[in-house]
Amino acid sequence: MLYWLSVATALITAQSFKASAFPAYASLGGLSQRELDVIVPSLPAVYPPPPPPPPSYTGTKLVHDPDHPWQPQKPGDLRGPCPGLNTLASHGYLPRDGVATPEQLIIAAQEGLNMNNRLARFATYSTFLLDGNIVTNLVSIGGKSNRTGVDPPFPAIVGGMSNHGTFEGDTSMTRADAYFGDNSNFDQERFNQFRNFSYHYGDGYYNLTVAAELRYHLIQQSIATNPEFSMMGFRHLTAYGEATFPATMFVDGRTTGSEEGQLDMDTAESFFKHSRFPVMFHRSNKPRGIEPALDLLAVHPMLPGRNVAGVNSFVADLSMGSTIEYCNMYTQLVNETIRGLYPNPTGVLKRNLKINLRYFYQSLEYDYCIEVFPYGMH
Which residue range or ranges hold the Heme haloperoxidase family profile domain (predicted)? Predict the structure, then answer.
């Protein structure tokens, strides 16, 4: 069974976890009704505001500017598996402690990386619904810290984007699979592969040609080494999406012609390893989405699925949707995963879930997907 579905059935005792210690940014997903009854009334409830619109200016501009200097992490600051969000936090486009609202995530992705509004909303609300605190309207871009209070026993969700099987998933470009112990921090061995493929297929640059080859290689590598490898549904989409980002959003927006979409290795290391914009870095010259993801998939077609009996036992499984079965992915994510995390919400939790699910649906790339209402329309 998928990790996040098993998490949804996890139970912990209320005696082992005091509501006063529960961090305002931690996820409520997977907690029992008894725990929710104790914790939710203690949290500062926030009515979810509507998502921000596109910015008025969407061209290239200096983003490593005097208003957004890079600062190293302080003790307790949260960073996670996404180099883009880590960089935005280290430059102050997001709160530097790594705890943010959905609105802050959308604005930061647009302002700092020129991510298009629809993708920024889709990435934010899908992630927030899985890993954020629906009551307080906060989410961690990382995982556990000494600010989370007493941890509930495994496998209950503690919160944050480092939580495996929700936003974060196997076969990352620069993070190891969770099976090997650390799925959140920069992995030098993975980056060495990123670099080697860029020299072999891209003359020293990472581009979409490199992305297609590296993406396929990393999937095959995980199948062969990770007995618990899974790339189901939502992760099938994000795996191909994240492979395009470096070539579209980490390249200086002033590049033109044949240099456009060509990421050099020094810049790549600055983002991936140091969470830092290069000096005088300008964001992309136009809003970017994940349209190239389908192009990558076409080079080496790969269905979603998982290892079912140890390494090299990959079985395709379309039950949770995929990059090419977008609407089914949305339906299954809502009806199975999110509903599994929150089977019987009440009060402000139910209200905020319904509001955020509406925002999520409105962010979908394709308008023909049928909206689902796991908690009723009204």
Answer: 66-298
3-class SS of residue 184? coil
The distance between the two most distant Cα atoms of the chain, rounded to a whole number of Å, is 62
> So what's the pLDDT on residue 159?
61
User: Model pTM?
Assistant: 0.89
Closest CA to 237 of 191, 289, 290, 194: 290
H or E element in which residue 153 lies = none
Rounded CA-CA distance 338/353 in Å is 9
Three state DSSP letters for 67-116: CCCCCCCCCCCCCCCCHHHHHHHHCCCCCCCCEECHHHHHHHHHHHHCEC
Q: Residue type for 111, please?
A: E
CATH number attached to the domain at 186-324 = 1.10.489.10
User: In 3D, which of 7, 45, 265 has the Cα closest to residue 131?
Assistant: 7
For residue 115, list its beta bridge partners: 288
Q: Of 29-33, 53-57, 63-67, 287-291, which gets the smallest average pLDDT? A: 29-33
Neighbours of 95 (CB within 10 A): 17
